Each structure stands twice: as C-alpha cells, then as structure tokens.
C-alpha cells in the first residue's frame, strides 16, 4: 500500500531526531532517519541554543526523508518554555537562551512584588519554576531593555521552526501552556499576567490547536530539501504533550504517566484544569494536552544529572555502568530537585559526592555508585510527585506508564515500582516522535482522533515491572 507518510522533527535538550513514519493496518511504524546532538552553548555568563546548527541538521534529515518518496506532512516538537523574539522584519533578535541560563536566578522570588503568587497561580495554573518563560522574559527585559523594546513577536521554538519551514506565524496551545503566560481555563494568553508584568500582548501570535494545518513548505525549503507537496502540521508541539498523547494506556482512569528524558514529568490526564490552593502548595502544573485535555503534572529534574555525569566521565558506554549499579545494594538516593544539580558542568559527580557528604553519607566515587544514587533519587522524587498529585486530585494510581529514555533503564523502572507500589509499564522510548506522527495522521484523516492510544497499544512493545515486597 501507499499510506500517507509523515515526518516528525523532535528537538530534545540532549539531541534531535528526524523520523519518517506511517500508519498502516492500525499500527504505526517509523524509522529515525537522522539523529544529531544538541547541547546548550555557554558564552560569557549566558547559555544559548545553537538554533542555526539545529536548523542545518533538520534540513539534512528532511533531505534523507525526501529521498524515500513523497511525504504528506511535517510537524515539530521541542522541549517547552524556551522562546525566540522577532524584530519588525521577522528576524530573530538576540540569541535563543536555554532555560538553564543563570539569568533567571532569583527572579521567581520577585514575582510576588508584581502579583501575589496565589493570583499568578490562579491565572495560569503553572508550577513555579525558574525555567518558566515568564521569569525568562522578565530577566531578558531587565538585562536587555533595548532589545526587548524592539521585539515585535514572541514564538516558542517549535513555532519558530514551523515558521522557518512554511512562513506561518502561530503558537500552538500545548507548548504555550508551559509559559506561565497562558490561561488554561480560557485557553488563551493571560491578559492579566501580561498586563501586570508589562509584557506587550501584541507580541503574542494567535493560538492554534494541535493538529492544525499551517500550510505548504516555502518554495525555497521545498527546493532545498526535495520535498514536493508536503504540508506543515502543528502537532502537540510540546514534547511532553506528544509523549502523553501516545501513552499506550488501556481505558480507565487509574493510571499515571512518567515522561522521562532530560526532565522528568510525572502526572495524570484530566478533562480540565485543577487550580486549587492545594495544587498550588504542591506546585502542580496544568499543561494542555491534545483534544483540550489537561496534563496535571510535576516537573522535576530527570536524566540530565546522569547525562552530565557521563559527560564528566568521558562519555563511556552506559550499559556496563547500569549493570554494575543494579548489582549494588545501597539505598542512597540524591534529591534531584536540589538547585545545585540544575546546571550543566563536568563538576556534576563532585556536586553529588559533596551533597551526599553534607547529608552524612560518604559515597565511593565510582560511576556505578553515583549512577545508582541518581536513579534511586529520581525514582523517589517521581514517587513523591505522584503521591502529591493523587492526593490533590483525589486520584488513585494503580499503573504507571513510563515513556522516554528512562523507560529503557530497568533499574529506574523497578525502583519506581518499588517506591510507588504500583505496576510500571515501560515503553515506548520514542513516545514523543510517535505522538507527533499520530497527531499528524489524525489531522489529515488517516486515523480517527480517538485512535491514537489504540494504535499505540497495537504498536508498542511494553515491559512490566511489579513492585517487590520487601
Ligand atoms: C521535557 C520538557 C518539560 C519542560 C522542560 C523544559 O523535555 O519539555 O516538559 O518542562 O522540558 O522545557
């Protein structure tokens, strides 16, 4: 057959991929045609994304895809919260900062000078994190008032790539909902927040639903990549939203998810936002999912800490380290939410050893010992997040679906099962790519909108981890 084929471009904070896939016989198949590294670039006191290099890699991936025949559509997902600004000529001004740039240090402690925390939470339903777009924009305004005053347009990063591909300016809801500038009840930019913080409403483009057809590729891009007749479709552009859309869950409400990549997102799906005093105190976030659903979740640090350790150790193969770590029996666990673990650097293993020492635990400085403490810390932290969410949302989690890179790590999956006393169902690893492709397929009518999870159940190879009673 000749099923419609789709390209998913997914940029992650540690690497990007271009995948080509199609739905046939109720199953999704895809190949990752091109993988490329991504790493924020330090310059002076700042930390930037190299958007032009990513754009070069994306075009390279598109050329490989076009060599394999016609492609119906393309969509882009990236991590949340980061953004680009345009001047009047639609050129990006300044560089694109990483949310880990230290320019936001201390900013969230000053937000309540402008708007009481309870009001800001009421307006946005978003957890207070230094990485959010709101503190980033305030830091930008403070550090570069002139540049900020010349900004005419604000775009999230998937929206920026879509604009480069097809020339259409639009912000897609799921990623907009990560900014702390968006009202998840009205499903629009929050005038209350923008006005209070002096951020011009006119900078913010129209919002579009996941699955919106944006338009054909620009002629120059079609010529450059060899893609003919391909349209650009905004998927659920926030990587986490796409990953959750593709969770291979059976019907029922007793499940939770963990999307485990550089960050770790743990939560449940709900029909509408839950914005309450208890949710605010538990620092729970309301992000948008597909079909108007809410992703009620907590964001905590994820594999980033381990990725930085591996880098410090000279990027050795991870498998032997994981095996050694699993064979140990220490219960030591770091607290991955400690601010000192939030920034990149080859000092990460030392920071971990120092933190443990300060808690009175002397760790052997070996990769296996440190890795075990990190993974057990991640498991304990997601278990705490899920317990809080269950309590605040009056939910009971019996099964936990884990997707993303962490779903490959048995030690992590088993530790989560043990810490939560719930069955952990692991896979798929590439949930974001799958969700991206399937929202495109649904958008052009290849599958019904409600068929995404059934297709994933038919497709995914899942592994189960049962809690060990000790
Ligand atoms: C995951 C993710 C999280 C977001 C964090 C920063 O990749 O998108 O959902 O909170 O990155 O953008």
TrEMBL record:
Residues 256-443 form the Carbohydrate kinase FGGY C-terminal domain. The keyword Methyltransferase does not apply. GO terms for biological process: rhamnose catabolic process. It comes from the Bacteria. Keywords: ATP-binding, Kinase, Nucleotide-binding, Rhamnose metabolism, Transferase. Pfam families: FGGY_C, FGGY_N. InterPro entries: ATPase_NBD, Carb_kinase_FGGY, FGGY_C, FGGY_Carb_Kinase, FGGY_N, Rhamnulokinase. Residues 7-244 form the Carbohydrate kinase FGGY N-terminal domain. One of its GO terms (molecular function) is rhamnulokinase activity. Belongs to the FGGY kinase family. This is Rhamnulokinase.
């Amino acid at each position: 057959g000749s099923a419609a084929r789709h390209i998913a471009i997914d940029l992650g904070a540690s690497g990007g991929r271009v995948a080509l896939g199609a739905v046939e016989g109720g199953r999704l198949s895809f190949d990752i045609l091109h993988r490329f590294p991504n790493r924020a670039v330090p310059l002076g006191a700042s930390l930037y994304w190299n958007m032009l290099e990513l754009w070069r890699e994306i075009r390279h991936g598109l050329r490989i895809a076009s060599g394999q025949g016609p492609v119906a559509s393309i969509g882009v997902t990236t991590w949340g919260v980061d953004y680009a600004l345009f001047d009047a000529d639609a050129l990006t001004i300044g560089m694109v900062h990483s949310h880990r740039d230290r320019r936001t240090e201390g900013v969230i402690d000053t937000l309540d000078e402008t708007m009481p925390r309870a009001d800001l939470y009421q307006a946005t339903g978003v957890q207070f994190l230094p990485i959010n777009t709101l503190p980033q924009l305030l830091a930008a305004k403070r550090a570069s008032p002139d540049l900020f005053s010349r900004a005419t347009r604000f775009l999230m990063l998937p929206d920026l790539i879509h604009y480069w591909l097809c020339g259409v300016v639009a912000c897609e809801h799921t990623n907009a909902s990560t900014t702390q500038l968006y009202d998840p009840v009205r499903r629009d930019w929050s005038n209350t927040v923008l006005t209070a913080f002096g951020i011009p409403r006119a900078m913010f483009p129209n919002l579009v639903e996941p699955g919106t057809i944006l338009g054909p590729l620009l002629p120059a891009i079609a010529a450059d990549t060899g893609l003919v007749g391909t349209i650009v479709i905004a998927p659920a552009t926030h990587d986490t939203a796409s990953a959750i859309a593709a969770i291979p869950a059976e019907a029922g409400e007793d499940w939770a998810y963990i999307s485990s990549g550089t960050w770790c997102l743990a939560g449940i799906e709900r029909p509408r936002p839950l914005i309450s005093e208890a949710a605010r105190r538990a620092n729970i976030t309301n992000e948008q999912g597909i079909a108007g659903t809410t992703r009620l979740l907590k964001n905590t640090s994820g594999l980033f800490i381990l990725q930085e350790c591996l880098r410090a150790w000279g990027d050795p193969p991870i498998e032997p380290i994981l095996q050694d770590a699993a064979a140990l029996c220490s219960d030591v666990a770091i607290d991955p939410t400690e601010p000192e673990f939030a920034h990149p650097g080859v000092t990460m293993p030392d920071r971990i050893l120092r933190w443990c020492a300060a808690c009175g635990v002397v760790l052997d400085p070996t990769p296996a010992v440190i890795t075990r403490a990190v993974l057990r810390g991640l498991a304990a932290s997601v278990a705490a997040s899920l317990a809080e969410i269950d309590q605040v949302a009056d939910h009971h989690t019996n099964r936990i679906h884990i997707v993303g890179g962490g779903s490959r790590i048995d030690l992590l999956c088993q530790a989560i099962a043990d810490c939560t006393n719930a069955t952990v169902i692991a896979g798929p690893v590439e949930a974001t790519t799958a969700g991206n492709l399937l929202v495109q397929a649904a958008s052009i009518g290849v599958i019904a909108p409600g068929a995404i999870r059934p297709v994933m159940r038919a497709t995914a190879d899942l592994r189960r981890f049962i809690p060990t009673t000790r």
